[in-house]
Amino acid sequence: MSSPALLPVSSRRLAALSPSSAVSFYPHHRATLRLSEKFILLLILSAFITLCFGAIFFLPDSSKHRRFDLGLQDVLIPHVEQGRPAGRDGSAGPQGGGGGVMVHGGGEEHQHRHREEEEQLRKMIRADHERALEEAKEKLKKSKDQIRAEIQTEKNRVVQDMKKREGKQLPRVPIPKLVGINNGDPGDPDTREKQEKIKEMMKHAWGNYRQYAWGHNELKPLSRKGHTTNIFGNSQLGATIVDALDTLYIMGLFDEFRDGKEWIEKNLDFSVNAEVSVFEVNIRFIGGLLAAYYLSGEEVFKQKAAQLAEKLLPSFNTPTGIPWAMVNLKSGVGRNWGWASAGSSILSEFGTLHLEFVHLSYLTGDPTYYKKVLHIRKLLQKMDRPNGLYPNYLNPRTGRWGQHHTSVGGLGDSFYEYLLKAWLVSDKTDTEARKMYDDAMQAIEKHLIKKSNTGLTFIGEWKNGHLERKMGHLTCFAGGMFALGADGSPDDKAGHYLQLGAEIAHTCHQSYDRTGLIENFLGSVHECLFLSNGESDDKSIRTAF
Hints:
By secondary structure, the protein is mainly α.
């Protein structure tokens, strides 16, 4: 007797067949797989291939690293041979100081030591796993009510600790006497007229922000609406208020300053579930709050700066101590931008924390902040640098440089600025920062600074061993940086660096003047300029669209 219900659906439309013919056309065992079965097998195969490629490309190569103690915490960096002096450019030579030479092979002694260290690390990991397993077994022996009670007790303890930290009075420290914030009448009528015009512009911008976007991070002037960018975690943290406080105070706009202070006292809360840029929050919020405190002496600004800084500390919890680019203010979980050379940290971001964090340690009496940024500096000093240049990307897990791309503009700029200013704000006693700055400028001048055929001095970008003859708009700050750093430069080269700064500033002026960048800034002009050889004076600078 035939069983039509067991046949494929398409065959049920055929005429009934005899049992013998049914056997010949429809065997008992299917020779092919159904579509759903093929799909499942394809998924399993795809997962296996992905796992294999992940193992090949993403697992760290621990054989080329060793654990190195800088005195603050253990980090992973390429091998360092301490027995030989290094030159100013990082190469071996008689001009070197006390630094080590980077080596990537090592003899039998190094390999033996490395194997011992790996074995010790395995033992530590095994011990941690066993301890965690024992703790889990003990937990499982308890009832659900006991476990819930322990969890609630731990939550209450964390909440109480947070309240204690937030309510803790910070030590009072002397505020330096600042010049030029009071009675700053220039006397000259022309200068006074310009000052009043600038104040008028500031009041116009502030008034419209106050009316249309109060409490938001930014104002969208055309739509007259508040705007919150992802660098501040899409939370209303009043970035414009905090960032404008010192300017309001210096301009003598004290009514506006008091409005900002009142909003900060009542509304600025960092206990939000928001992922923020460590770099942006540091320079705008911590920098803005510290500046407002130094200008006004109001304790609320110091308290808020310390609260926020504590929220940023988890971003330093990486194998190398190089901070993540982003951190969640509530959970403390950090990550890097996916586009930044396979998830690397960016030089201009982790290198632009030093000034604020040093002042935080001074104001709070807590050395943690100073140690974090000093650790970054020490690690950078130990690392090999291609041609003496600092690449823009550094992997916080392995301590290795990412893509060998060096620029004085975007991705690199403020790192060099902060080295110079660290020396200046220390009353020129931070000679370590000054030497790092001088060495960097020496390499930049040698490899990146060139002249076009028409005589324009520009700072190019170094990518994988080749010079790109382009100068980003953000590089234009370097004219002022060279001039600021001229005093104290080695080998009596102050005049040289003043002239170099003037030439860079001239090139930037020409880029605006010839391309109409100022008039078209709100249009489609891209902030990058290419300087080409063999072109006429009018075409030697051209914009990239």
